[in-house]
Structure formats: structure tokens, C-alpha cells
Amino acid sequence: ILNVEQSPQSLHVQEGDSTNFTCSFPSSNFYALHWYRWETAKSPEALFVMTLNGDEKKKGRISATLNTKEGYSYLYIKGSQPEDSATYLCAFNTGNQFYFGTGTSLTVIP
Amino acid sequence: DADVTQTPRNRITKTGKRIMLECSQTKGHDRMYWYRQDPGLGLRLIYYSFDVKDINKGEISDGYSVSRQAQAKFSLSLESAIPNQTALYFCATSETTGGTQPQHFGDGTRLSIL
């Protein structure tokens, strides 16, 4: 069993604030790192798939970076909006199996 | 229509009953996965299948079995349900290249075992 940790567990920010959270994973057996956005009563939806050390991905106001040597990824949200409220999951892939973190729950206060 | 469909969406049953959760997909993906989600825990992999003849145990397979009836269908069975199998269950699919492609999730099945 591989340990994937996400911090913080939950976060409340004001509308317009920028924020970031962390996913830590083993630096060995790395194949890919995924980020998903999970809204209440819905299913997780993919944000990014990252495979190379130093990768940076961006989608609108959300971006992510990857450091495979030290085993972490950051997810950034610039200018948070209420519709960004969700749980953000990261998943470490070994080529076969996925290991998910417990997620960071983000609440954006209008 | 959803690309990944899970049935039923909700199920309440009693200890000792046999239960089957079904997953079907129209995405044409080879890889299919079953996860369970418990409060305070991340999604945990139960079983995964890379094609019809390939079934693999995940992190928490004890008490579960699966059947890959066709490329599009992957069923999860609880032979004799117990209360600690109460959870939210998700089916997911991905393309053959697997780890470098995103997973696509169904809407989940909420299972309660009394």
C-alpha cells in the first residue's frame, strides 16, 4: 500500500483569493500523477495528468506543478470563485494501480 | 446519456445478502476499475481489469469479486455483505495507456448494509 497525502484537509478562502494545496507521494515507482475535482453529489472529474518531473499544467485559473524527485505536486487556484468549491483529489499511478489521497476540501466564500 | 453508467444508484440491504453492482461504459475503453470511498479515506481500489481476460486485485479486494462480461461491462459482487462494506462505490474507465490518461468515473452507487 502506497501512501499519498494531501494537505490541508480543508480550506476556506474568500472569493478572489488565490490558494494552493499539496499532494505528497512516493518518489519511487512513479508513472503519473493525476488531479481530479470532485463536487458534492457528482463524480470526480479529471483536471490534469502529469508525467514528467518539472511538468506544469494550466487550465483557466487552475494550474499544477510536479516534482517527482522529491515526491510532491502543487495545485494552484488564482482568484478563487464560489464555483471552485469542491474536493480536489490527487492520485498516484504506478503504471497499473491508482492510489488516491484523501483530498483537500475547498470552500470559497462569496 | 452518461458515458459510464452504474446501477443501482442506491441500495439498502441486509447482512449476509449477495449483491451485485453493475457498471457499463460507452467510451470504448479497455481499462475498468472499481473503487470504494469511505468518509475520511481516499478512494481505494478494489479490483481492476485491463481487458476481458484480465482481472487484478486492488488494495482491498477481500470480500469482493468481479466479472468482466464484455469490454463494456464490469460487475462487482459482494458474496455475503457485511456492515463494514457500507460505502460509496465508483466504477471508472481509462484508455489502454492507462496511467497517462485520465479516469472517467460513473455517478457512484451508495450501498448501505444493515
Structure description:
The complex is a heterodimer of chains A (110) and B (114). In chain A, 0% of the residues lie in helices and 55% in strands. Chain A is mostly beta strands and 110 residues long. In chain A, strand 9 and strand 10 form a beta hairpin. In chain B, the strands form 2 sheets. In chain B, strands 2, 4, 5, 6, 9, 10 and 11 form a 7-stranded mixed beta sheet that branches. Chain B has 114 residues and is mainly β. Chains A and B meet through strand 4, strand 5, strand 9 and strand 10 of A and strand 5 and strand 10 of B.
Order of helices and strands of chain B: EEEEEEEEEEE
Structural class of chain A: mainly beta
**Oligomeric state:** heterodimer
Rg on CA atoms of chain B, Å: 13 Å
Overall average pLDDT of chain B:
93
- Strand tally of chain B: 11
> Could you tell me the strand content of chain A as a percent range?
over 45%
**Could you give a short account of the major beta sheet of chain A?**
6 strands, mixed
Biggest sheet details of chain B: 7 strands, mixed
Largest interface: A-B, 26 and 24 residues
- Helix content class of chain A: under 10%
Radius of gyration of chain A: 13 Å
Tally of contiguous helical segments of chain B: 0
Strand percent estimate of chain B: over 45%
The helix/strand class of chain B is: mainly beta
* Ends distance of chain B: 32 Å
**Based on CA inertia axes, which overall geometry of chain B fits?**
globular
